[in-house]
Amino acid sequence: MTRLIGFLFVTLICAAAEFPPPSGWPENEGLPDPLVRRDGSRLPDPAGWSQHRAYLKAMLAHYQYGEMPPVPQGLRIESRTDESALDGAAVRILGVIPLEASGRRVALRLGIQRPAGEGPFPVIVKNDIYRFDGSDIADPERRQSYQRRRRFEIEGFVAREAVRRGYAIVKFIRGDLAADHDDNRESGVFPLYPGYDWGTIAVWAWGHSVVLSALANEPQLDLSRNAATGHSRGGKTALCAGIYDERITVTAPNSSGTGGTGSARFFDPEQKPQTIAYLEEAFPYWWNPRFFAFSGIESRMPFDAHTAKALIAPRALINTHARQDYWANPHGTYRTHLAARKVFAWLGVEDRCAIHWRDGGHNQREEDWLALFDFCDREFFGKRHNRLFNEGPGSGAR
Hints:
This protein is of the alpha/beta class and about 400 residues long. The chain has helices spanning about 1-15, 50-65, 140-150, 150-165, 200-215, 235-245, 275-280, 305-310, 330-345, 365-380; strands at about 80-85, 90-100, 105-115, 120-130, 170-175, 220-230, 250-255, 315-320, 355-360. It is about 35% helix and about 20% strand.
C-alpha cells in the first residue's frame, strides 16, 4: 500500500503542477540549482526537502520519463526452478513474474543467485538482456559479441564475489517489459497500461519495482538492504528506478551517459556528444516526447543529471564509470556529480554520494563491481575498505 500511495502521490503532484514549455524557463549558462523552488526562492533548510523532492520527481516525470503506473499487488515468482550452483556454494533460482492488466498478460523472466544457507542476504538487482549464462540471448551473433567482450566471464566473477561477500544477485530481462526498438508500444507492458505516457527507460525502471515486490516473498533475501544497478541504458534505468522507488537503498548506475548520470549540457572536449538531438534520432522511444523539446536549447532545461542524482538523497548513490568512456561523458558525469554532492552535503549525508573511476572503456567490468560491493559493504554492514571514492576522472588509477 505504501508503494501504491507513493506512485499516486507523484501522479497527483504531476497532474496539479504546471510545467511550461521550454520557452517558459529562463536560460542558465551553468547547472540549475536543484534547491531553488518554482517561485525562485531557495529552500532554507532540509525540512522542506521531502516536499520539494516530490515536485522535482514530478518535473522529471513530465519532461523526461513519463508517468508510471502503480506496481500491482500480490506479485510472486512462478514457474520456478531451484538448483545448486557454484559447487554447492550458491542456490540459483530461475522463474517468471506474471503481470496481468487490461486483459493482457506479460511474463517477466528473472534469476536469483544467492549464497547457500538461510540468510537473509542483501540483494543487488540488475536489469539486463539475459540472466546468468547468456542462454536467454536468442541471437547467436549477439551471444558471440558478449563472449568477445568477456561479459560471461565477468558474470562468473560477479557470482563468485557475491557469494563470498554474502550477497544475492538478482537479474531480470528488461526486454520482456519493453522491446529495445522503436514502434514498441504494441508489445510488452505498454498494452497493459494504455493510459500512461511513460517511455521505455521508465518501463524498465518500473521493472525494478516489480522485482522488489515479488522478492518480498523470498525469506532468504533482505530487502531492507538492496541495490539497483545496470550498465549504459541499463544505468539510465537504474537511476530512474532509484528516483521513484523509495525501497531502493543504494542506486548504482554504471556509465549511463546522457539521460543518466552524464550532463546534457557539458561534454568532454573533442568527443562526439550524446546530445538530446542524438537521442531523439537514435532512441526516441526511451523517453517521453516532451524531453526532445529541449533539443538545441538545453540551457533552458530546469534540470540536468545532477537533479536526478540529488533525488536519490538521503539514500545512497554510487556511480561507477570509466575514464576513457567518452561516449558516456566522463567530464559531464563528474561535473554533475559534484553538483549533486552539494545537495547530499546540505542534507548531512555527503558520504552517501560517491563516484568511482577505472581506466578503460564502455563496460561494467570487475573493478566496477568491486567498487559497488565495497560501497554496499559500507552502507549495509558498516565495513570500510581501502578504496578511494569521489576523485576526478583525471586522478589516475588507485
